[in-house]
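Notebook B, p. 112. Complex prediction, attempt 2.
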Amino acid sequence: MDFELSEEQKLLKASARGFMDKEIIPLVNDWERKYRPLPKDVAINIMKKIAPLGYTGGMVPVEWGGGGMNFVSYGVLIEELSRAWGSLSIMVVVHHGGALDLSRSGTEEQKKRYLPLLVSGNVIASGAITEPNAGSSNREMETTIVCDGDYYIVNGTKTWITNGGVSDFCAVVGYTDKSKGAKGISRIIVDGTESPFEARELPKLGFRSCPTAELTFSDCRVPKRNLIGQEGAGYEATMVAFLFPRAMIGISSAGLAQAAIEDAAKYALERRQFGKPIAKFQLVQQMLAEMVVETEAIRLLAYKACHLLDKGEVCFKECSGIKFFGSETAVRVCSTAMEVLGAYGISEEYPLERYFRDARTLLPPDGTNQIQRLIVGREVFGMPAFV
Ligand SMILES: Cc1cc2nc3c(=O)[nH]c(=O)nc-3n(C[C@H](O)[C@H](O)[C@H](O)COP(=O)(O)OP(=O)(O)OC[C@H]3O[C@@H](n4cnc5c(N)ncnc54)[C@H](O)[C@@H]3O)c2cc1C
């Protein structure tokens, strides 16, 4: 058992942290207020700026212009990004998930067409599964993808789509044949530049700079060549594709909690009450001690999930486990950090309230935490409780 990052990963962490401290963190407070959410041109500029570090295509194979990283190394990058800016972190995880998925399941033609654009950050990816009437019960989705000569016609409404309004690469999941149940679900790339769709922004509690939209596809004509994989292969592929973002939500939780610890510790050393720094008080030390240990627990479980993914394991239990444990623990850690600051914990002049809002916003995406518990239960008992 080895709990150490490799020398290469330590360097990666140090260079990502250095970049975030210098280039991103000084902007975040202003940008979170100004951009709710980031407009497309600003979002693309930021994506292009962080692309050379590996954020936009780190795990995409080198032959397609990516960094050929493994899950653990990519996790190192995401932890540093999340410590710096939660909104950008969730945008990047969704974007990179789209690029990674395409590099694994796309046709040569699709890879040639889209991977260079995605890896360089010139086009932003999104993935659309959730619908107004089909959230956890995603198989009840109403979106249809109907063959019509050289095109598929997409009809339906997708909601809560991260990057939805700024994305020109949206992997839409829908039924090509409803009579076949899950085996009739397919995925198709809807490229907004050739197959326009409507986007309505959805304001939300956390990740305020990250665009999140409801997307409407009305007789949206999409070239047949954009189908990802075979007709009917979309559901299973989507369930496996969920492993990456769930593990990354765990990693992001560690990043947010780490930021909260650092800010709370700094404040506790500076703030004086009863003639001494509040860090001297045992109850304040207790808060910090619990935050540190809980954050380390998130980190260990999250990197263990990444390690298993690197070994090629389809580890539903570990990825769902860290998704619920990480996000809920991060909420607790960020809330405790706010307590360390007293009234200033809830002040918008400090970033603690943002970390807390962001951590709380991590609970529903990629399947609610109740559904994650049911997936762990399914893996334990060998039978699902939710179908
Ligand atoms: C910030 C954010 C980003 C997102 N990004 C995306 C995205 O990029 N693409 C995308 O497709 N979707 C995205 N989503 C949507 C997300 O995946 C859904 O919100 C989630 O799957 C839950 O669906 P719902 O919100 O409709 O809740 P519902 O399914 O209506 O659930 C409501 C409540 O009922 C519970 N519940 C439902 N069924 C069961 C059951 N069988 N047993 C026990 N409890 C149950 C849930 O756990 C929850 O507490 C995002 C959501 C958020 C908040």
